[in-house]
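Students often ask what a holo structure prediction actually looks like on paper. The answer is less mysterious than it sounds. You provide the chain, you provide the ligand, and the output is a string of C-alpha cells encoding the 3D arrangement of the protein together with 3,4-dihydroxyphenylalanine.
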Amino acid sequence: MIRQRYKMFVNIGHSSPKVLLCRTISIATQTTKSSNEVTLFNQRYPIDEWTNISENIISKLGRNLHVAQYHPLSHIRKRIVNYFYAEFHNRNGNPVFSVYDNISPIVTVAQNFDSLLVPKTHPSRQKSDCYYINKDTMLRAHTTAHQTELISMGLNNFLVIGDVYRKDEIDSTHYPVFHQVDAVRLCTAEEVFQNVNNSDSLKLFEHRSLETNEKQACHTLESVKVMEHELKNTLINLAKSLFGPEIKYRWVEQYFPFTHPSWELEVYYNDKWLEILGCGIMRQEILEKSGASERIGWAFGLGLERLAMYLYDIPNIKLFWSTDTGFLNQFKVDDPNTAIKYKQVSIYPQCINDISFWLPEGTPYSSNDFYDLVREVGGDRVEQIILKDVFRHPETKKLSHCYTIVYRHMERTLSKREVSNIHEKVKKVAAEKLHVTIR
Ligand code: DAH
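The corresponding C-alpha cells follow.
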C-alpha cells in the first residue's frame, strides 16, 4: 500500500473459518499453561513474548472483503484482474496471469521479510508495526510475502490478492487491516527481446558490472529498460482503465528491499497527487533462490482501499467493514465497471420493519407505486425499501409481496414509537390507495 511512515517497503503503503483464542486469555499477558496457545483457522500456534495480535484483529480474519459479493473492494479486484486477463494472453487467447485470492494471511516471518531480503534490523519488522502470532509467525504485512513460494512452484505470471495487517494509528485513511494486490511477471531473454530486431546478441545478464541507479549489477541495461518499459506501460494503462484515459500521472523513484530500480506511481485526482502503487525490477537474488535464475522479473503492489476511496468517493476507510445495508446496497451492481458515487448514510441506527400484503386482483399494481407511497408517507425517514419475497398462494393463486422498509434519520435516532406510527400509516395508505390487503 502505500501509506507508511517509513517505507518498507518504502514507501508505499471463502467460507468463514473458525478463529478462536484459547480459553480466557488476554494474549498480551498470558501467564497460565492453558493460555499458551492461540487457534486460528483451526490451527494451533504457541504464543510467546512476540505475540501481539488482539481479539479485534483476529475478528477480521476470514472476512475476505476482497471477494465478498458486491463489495466495493471486490469490484476493484475484478477490474484489476479483468485488465490483466485482457492485456496478457497467450496464442490461444487464454490469460497468462494466474490469480491467487484466497491464500491464508498467516505467514512465517521468513516469508514476510527474509525471503524478500528485508534486513534483520529494518524498522518494518518491529513489534510496534506488525501483528505477530509468535516470533516465527505473523499476519502478513503485505501480499508480497507470497512471491517466493509461488515462483518456487514454477509460476511466472501471477497476481496475489488478499488482506494485510499492519499496526498503525487509525484515522480516516488508515486501518490496521487493508487489502493489497501484488503482481509478478518473469520473462526469459527470448520473451524480453521478442520485438527487437537482431536480438541474438542481446542478453539478460552480465558479469563484472556494478549496481547503478538504473540497474542491478547482474542485469544488462537493455534488459532492464525493456522490462521497465513493459512494467510502466502496464501500470499506466491499468491506472487509465480505473481512473479514465485522461489522468495525469508521474513516476517517483523509490526504494524497496526487494526491487531495484523501484518506483511509485502517482496519479492526479481530485486536485491532489495520489500515490497508488509501488513497483520495480525484482532483485535477482530472489529469483535465484526460487529457482528462476534464468529469468528477469518485474513486480508491483497496490492497496485496494485507496483506489476504492477515490473511485467511489468513500470518505472513511472504516466504511469498508460496515455491514450496514445503507452502505453495502449502494454497491449492489453486477458490472464492476459501473460508476458509483457513494452517498453518506446516517450514523444513527437503522430501524427495520417488514410489510406483507396480497396484491389487488383486477387493478394493476407496481412495486414502484408502493415505493413512491412509502416515500410520501415516511419522507426522509425512509432509507431503503427492498422487495424481500414474492409468494403465490397454491390454491387461491393470489400473489403476495413482502417488503423490508429500513427507517433511519440523518440527524437523530428515531424512536420505536415514531417508526411504528409511520409503518402503520404506510399500511393504511397502501390499503386505501393501492387496494392491497395487508396480511
Ligand atoms: N510490498 C510493498 C508495500 O506494501 C509494495 C510493493 C512494492 C510490492 C514493490 C511489490 C513491489 O511487489 O515490487 O509497501
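The pocket of 3,4-dihydroxyphenylalanine is lined by residues 1, 8-9, 12-13, 142, 144, 182, 256, 258-259, 278-280, 299-301 (CB under 6 Å).
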